[in-house]
Fold these 2 entries.
Entry 1:
Amino acid sequence: MTAGRARALRMRAQRLTTPARSLAELLHDVVAVQAQDVTAAGLAVRARTTGLAPTDLSAALDAGDVVRTCAMRGAVHLLRREDVGWLVALLGPVNVARSRRRRLELGLTDDVCARALDVLREVLTEPLTKPQVVARLAGAGVALDPATPAPAYLLAYAANKGVVCAGESTYRLLPRTDDEPRGVAELVRRYLRAYGPATVEDFTAWSGLPEVEVRAAFPFDDLVEGKHGWQLPTTDAADLDGTVRLLGPFDTFLLGYADRTLLLDPSDAARAQPAGPHVVVDGQVRGTWRRRDGRVVVEQFGHIPVSELDVEVESVLAWV
């Protein structure tokens, strides 16, 4: 498989050449959208969908159809409501264990965290901002210093325990879901549908799961291996020809892989941080961009088709 073919497959898998028509369709296909920054998450949605507006994302979050919570690597993501239960059950324990040392440094002992979960279940009868949550916890005897990271770490703990989730600026109880428990192999298949071709190391870096556990569960017999990694047997994509996408901060286009050299030439790595934002042409980073004074300013280090770039700039400005 050529590098160009692999890039085309990845662009299609991430819905960057075949836009989804709804948030539900998008999140079904890409598993999750990184969302520690809501505006950045919206830009990721914009690049992968057609016919949607920022209000559609806000409405989906308010309705609980899309859930914003901790998932891969403990980072905040947008998930389908149907996927929240099994993903939090699979990834949450790993995230909780990984952050325990820092919680203890902040005074968040296991007993304090357990008491806080009980309080959160009682007080989150309505969406609350972080300061309101801290005040309610203090009123129930769980005091957190808002000048430290303790509130953020406690809320992340509660999210990884499947108790709370976040809206755009508030916290609420995680909606109940009826999804069946699923394992690592199912997440691998979903990942390869969204990111393939990709390697075991790529999946491990994206998911945050221990590599030993990943290798033990990786469904090798069900997959096709090529030069650039594993993929599902039915994967296909049209060739790329000047496709331009403006991807915002924290986009998973690069963050979804351990090895990013296929998508970003090593000679350009110093000018394009993995977290973006990026200008992507035919599956390869060709520049960076930023908003300034109501305009999009592009720094390019490779050829970018002007007409396609203009269309993307107009779309980004309409979204933000």
Note: The chain is about 45% helix and 15% strand.
Entry 2:
Amino acid sequence: MEQRTRALVASAFIGVIFLLVQLGALALVQPFEAAGYQAVEDPSDPTNTVVYVAAILVATGLMLLAIKLNVDQLIRAFVVFAGVYLSWYVFSVVVPDVVTYGEFNVIAVAAALALGAALLLYPEWYVIDASGVVMGAGAAGLFGISFGLLPAILLLAVLAIYDAISVYGTEHMLTLASGVMDLKVPVVLVVPLTLSYSFLSAETPDPTGEVEGEASANGGEPASADEMESAETVDEDPEADPMDRDALFIGLGDAVIPTVLVASAAFFAPSSVPTVGLLGLVVPLTALAAMVGTFVGLAVLLRMVLKGRAHAGLPLLNGGVIGGYLVGALASGLPLLEALGVAGFL
């Protein structure tokens, strides 16, 4: 019972991480837009989705190649660089321009470099998670102002299908997860179940294995950080408790991708949509409903993971956020075609 309670507390902590990413993205969309960080000229163009999905496929292929060639440290360097880059975007609009050098906010640059140094020198679980929240909020905010409602919905739908295929079909996401786990970078968020847990010294399981309960929600990331027994040993112990683990893992992408629609729904909400106050933020009802949908999907996903089964995360999470957004849009009086972002094309 104690282990089950710990697992439930850890699940709640995962929910807190998701909430921080979403609140951070909502807080950043307007400052990002004011700073001119919108990445595309026409956010309503559906081809933006095609470009981004193609970039994901290329990046995935390159990472798999790096793992195959045993140069996976290149992946670590890339992720740390991405962390510094994304955090600079965040800190540049959050930290006041007290000290500047040319056009650069010196304190913001220093904070971003400090985040990168922490990831390189001491990637303990709380460093990974804190960095992941900053990176996730920044990425979701940037994509939220760059993807209109239709491109965002298309992006989430395509990535949900891709995640399911890559986990249950080709299983190449399991291979990728296996390769990046030991790199200790914020591709995967870590939530310990014990106070003594250390991500630095923990053995990480192989998510490509056939052991039930070995993979987590995010495309096969491990759901356990304790040293796994061999498949033969597990088969001999059918009563093994899937709760018997030292940590839960969930991919950063599982938090970021649904939040893109949350941020987009907030940024591109018509003026007729009612707003709600949320922890100091003014949030359109459509975005709030999308947040609720995310957590419904997350609750179902974590319930499955805690039973010891491997699952792709994005089908449930993206389905939840899209469903929640549409419910909020219809409740706000928006016609369905306008809510989907296709009215302007008809």
Note: Residues 59 and 65 are 10 Å apart (CA to CA).
